[in-house]
Amino acid sequence: MSDYRTLRPYTRPVKRSTDKHILIVDDQPRMRDMIRVMLKNNGYVHVTFAESGNHALRLIAAHPMDVVVTDWNMPNMTGIELLMRIKGDPNLFTMPVMMISDERTADKVLFAVEEGIDVFLVKPFNERDLIRGVETALEKSEPKDALEVRIIEMRRLKLSKDFHKALELGAEILKVRKSAKVAMLTCECLYQLEQYDRAISMMADTDAKGRSSQQTNLLGKIHLSLGQYSQGIEALEAAVAMNPLNHDRKIDLAGAYFAAGKAEDAERVILGIVNAQPTDLNLVGIAQLYLDQGLVDKAGQYLRQTVDPIKETVPVFNNYAVALRQADRLEDATDIYRKCLKIDPGSDVLHYNLAVLYAKSGKLKEAREDARNALQLNPDNPYAKELLEKLGG
After folding, report:
1. What is each CA distance from 98 to 32, 95, 141, 315, 364, in whole angstroms?
2. Could you give the 3-state DSSP secondary structure of residue 317?
3. Could you tell me if residue 172 is inside a domain?
4. What does the pLDDT read at residue 2?
5. DSSP states of 99-115 as a string?
6. Is 268 part of any domain?
């Protein structure tokens, strides 16, 4: 958690006026207020606050920001997880993010850099440090040249899952200039298109010792997709060793162990994550691992520990509810769908699924109500129409 008392006295402010919108994300009110004062002293008056990563995502969805200033250490969703959500969104990834951390260890810097951080600010800092960081982040939001514009477009295409067009653009860029970013994006697209041999061939052109943990992790997943478990696990283990703070890497490794029949190794990795104060996203990732193994109750154990899950995690909760329904545990499944609707109330699919459960449980009034809710959200939902007709409208 943040500690405002560690900040050094700030320097005399430089007066200016700016229309830039800045989002401050921190679970500590005093820290949020102190940063607001520093920004206001320097003409940044359009400042919005979020006390959590989830809250920040909701605010950004309503109004994109010019800069996001986030603390690293926050409960339920850390600053690095917020960064990953922003940089993984095709509509938001160009939004500059400044990370504030209590320490500048090599592990933290590596993790932040790999996930696309624009500025890394360490406590204690003064007003000049903060403003310089904001200005640097704003500068980074502007492409330096025409080639960088094309790389940004390639990333947008990849994030939008338009992998073929992204590959075409990547090939054009690589004819002009070698780029590690473009090569990595190309390999990611090839992986998504299941062109594993081409991806491995491209990886082979790089020096193994110079590969990032991202490249190494991707190589591991490619080997696993080819059924090459020993090579895949070796690469994933190396990726975890290179970036030990990234729990997503560890979840990938645990999944590989399960796939290779090494359940004890998988459990060891999962226990390590659990002992390191997992976030909601970590818990959901672990739950999906257990769902993949058919261990429904183990999955539920971790999903019940989540506090403020984000909309993107709903599919895992839905998978859990489906498993419960298939086991004829209708009340438990109903409770999960209700939780899903609190996370994503605008989903016609969730309302339909809940209506099916109510119908199966003999609660016809509730079933008709949720079928109508589904149709109100999506009048073209054929399954909800059919169900409502069967229930007598």
Report:
1. 14, 10, 12, 30, 52
2. helix
3. no
4. 38
5. EEES---HHHHHHHHHT
6. no
Check: CB of residue 134 under 8 Å from CB of residue 39.
Answer: yes
Structure tokens at 125: 């800092």
Question: Rounded to an integer, what distance in angstroms lies between the CA atom of residue 157 and that of residue 299?
Answer: 34
User: Which amino acid would we find at residue 356?
Assistant: V
Residue type, 116: G
Q: What range defines the domain where residue 88 resides?
A: 4-140
Following DSSP, what letter does each residue of 263-299 receive, concatenated? HHHHHHHHHHHHTT---HHHHHHHHHHHHHTT-HHHH
**Residues 6 or more apart from 209 whose CB is under 8 A from it?**
none
CATH code of the domain in which 62 resides: 3.40.50.2300
Nearest to 92 by CA among 118, 123, 73, 72: 118
CA–CA dist 108, 321 (Å, integer): 36
Cβ(334)–Cβ(361) below 8 Å: yes
HSE (side-chain half, CA atoms, 13 Å) at 134 = 28
Q: Residue 43 is encoded by which pair of tokens?
A: 């003409």
Summarised one tens digit per residue, pLDDT across range 324-378 is 999 999 999 999 999 999 999 999 999 999 999 999 999 999 999 999 999 999 9
